[in-house]
Structures are given as C-alpha cells and as structure tokens.
Amino acid sequence: MARSPRRSTPKPPSERTALPDRIAPMLAQIATEPFDSPEHAFEIKWDGVRCIALVEPGQLRLQNRRFSEMREQYPELAGLSELPAGTVVDGEIIVLDSGRSSFQKLAQRIHLNDPARIAMASRRLPTTFVVFDLLYSAGVSVMDQSLRERRVLLTALIGELKDPHVVAADFVEGQGLAYFEAAKQAGLEGIMAKRLDSPYLPGKRTSHWTKIKVARVDAFDILGYVQREGQPFVSALILGLHEGKRWKYKGNVGTGFTEAQRGEWYRKLKPLPALVDPPKDGPKDAAWRTTNLRCRVRFFEETADGRLRGPVFESLEG
C-alpha cells in the first residue's frame, strides 16, 4: 500500500510555546461501510496501544489514552528522543506478527514493570511505533493546519529519524473501497478514513476521522444466557462450540438485540433444561441451558484462548 504523493506545502511554524503536560488524542467515529472519497486519506487501523510522544530537551514522554507514562515499558522506542525538541506526534504502539499487528502479543508487554523482564520482552516481542499525525513541530502547535499539511511535515521528520522501530503510517487518497478490500485480504483489523482538510482536535470524537473494521461472521451454539440483574431480560447470550465430548466457551454476545428481543430470549430460554457438563471457564452468573439453537455472530477476531472480540448478534441459524 503505497504512500500518496504530496499535494501541498505546509505553513511555516509561527510562535513557539512550551509543550503541554498532557494531550488527549483525537478520536474517530465508526462507519459501517467502506467508501471512496477524494476528500479522505485511508490508512490501516492498527491493533495496539495509542500513544502521544512528546519530545523535549533531554526528555521523552510516551503517554497512553489515560495519560500514563509508558517510556520505561518500551525501551526500544528511545530513538524517538532524536526527533527535534518540541515535537509531538500521535500514533499506535504495535507488535507485528507476519505483517499484522497482534494485540495478543502486545498484551504480554503492557503490564510488565520489572526492568529485566521488560528488557527480555523488548528483544523477544519488539514493538513498532506507527506514527500517523503531527501535533507540534519545533515547539509550535500545527493542530490547526490541515491533515494534508501535517502529513508533509510528519513524513519528512520520520524519514530523517531513520529508526527501524518508528515508521510513518502509509496511506492512500480517495480509494477507500480498494484499500479496505486489500486490508481484508491481508487479514487486517480494518482501515481509518481521515478528511484531508481536518484539523487535529484533541480529545474530540468527530466525523473527521472514521474507523471501518473488517468483521468475520460465523455460527455458534447458544449455551444459555446471563440475566439482567433483577429483571426478566437477557443481558447476553452465552456462546460455545462442541469440541470432542466437551463444550468450548467462546464468550458472550450482548449486542445486536432490541429490548423486546431481550425479553423474548429470557422467556424462551429460562424454562429449558440445564446444560449437562457446561464449560468450567464460563461466566459465574451463567444460566446454562440445552437450547439446540445456533446463531450467527459478527466479530473481529478470536483471542489466544478462543474468545470472540467484539461479537454482535446477527440472526438465528436455521
């Protein structure tokens, strides 16, 4: 996926200011379908940890969405300190696995705090910082400039850094449908669509940025339900598959229903016989039932232990 040609020259910085203590990242809305648009840039949606990197003289700060400091967790990203003082960039920390970001592998690093274990993990599961926006250049905010202008500055900065752990996000302009299909064929999570004329709005969730996820659809057995506390409604359906002589718990699906349907599910499932030998790793408040029902569920991926990520109920399977 090639980077689009530059089409404009960014404005020169004007007034230098001290960097803020914290910056909330700009957020995206969700779009259900991919689209073409000459007004948008399209890039890969990476599955990692959002990070704002702030570079000051003698100091590098890596902040997550909760403003927690992550610099010590990812020593391989220390090369960001070689960016010019007064630089602030936004991006995603990922662990690559066969060309795709693997949140399961990144999760093995997120909560480490022992320096020796962090050092070992940085060699075994090295991270990459995919940078997709520039907020400050030489101590001057460029957030009011357009994304197209910020991208020109960003590409030059990251290109001069020449750090294998820090890369500028690739993108294309206009061709969102083809880009989404390429992401789908590559097994990626999805794409981002960003208006080329948009400013950077810290902490705001606007239609300037939208995320379009690739979803899988598969059928699973309904093994019971979780009741909404104190009410005759289903909070979620319990999903599973028969593996050998045992049931494999696949997770709960709690979205895709109307309120009326939640009540119907409760009345339908409550009187059914109990499930024999239910999975031992299911929810503690499960009402296990022998339903002989299967449903189609849309989800994004399976975790390392086989659970569904982001499941949404679609329909009963006939």
Describe it:
With 318 residues, the chain is an alpha+beta fold. The protein has two domains: 27-213, DNA ligase/mRNA capping enzyme (D-amino Acid Aminotransferase, Chain A, domain 1), CATH 3.30.470; 216-316, Nucleic acid-binding proteins (OB fold (Dihydrolipoamide Acetyltransferase, E2P), Beta Barrel). Helices cover 17% and strands 37% of the residues. The chain contains five helices and 21 strands. The two termini are 40 Å apart. The model is unreliable at 1-7 (pLDDT under 50).
Task: Note the main attributes of this structure.
alpha+beta, 318 residues, 6-stranded antiparallel beta sheet, 2 domains, elongated, 6-stranded mixed beta sheet
- The CATH superfamily of the largest domain bears the name DNA ligase/mRNA capping enzyme
Which CATH top level class of the largest domain fits?
Alpha Beta
> Using only CA atoms, what is the Rg?
23 Å
Element-by-element helix/strand order: EEEEEEEHHEEHEEHEEEEEHEEEEE
CATH architectural name of the largest domain: 2-Layer Sandwich
Helix content: 10-25%
Strand content: 35-45%
What is the overall silhouette? elongated
Low-confidence stretches: 1-7
Q: Count every helix, treating DSSP H or I runs of 4 or more residues as helices.
A: 5
Return the domain count: 2
N-to-C terminal Cα separation, in Å? 40 Å
Largest sheet: 6 strands, mixed
Q: What structural category characterises the helix and strand content?
A: alpha+beta
CATH topology of the largest domain: D-amino Acid Aminotransferase, Chain A, domain 1
Number of strands: 21
Estimate the mean pLDDT confidence. Answer: 91
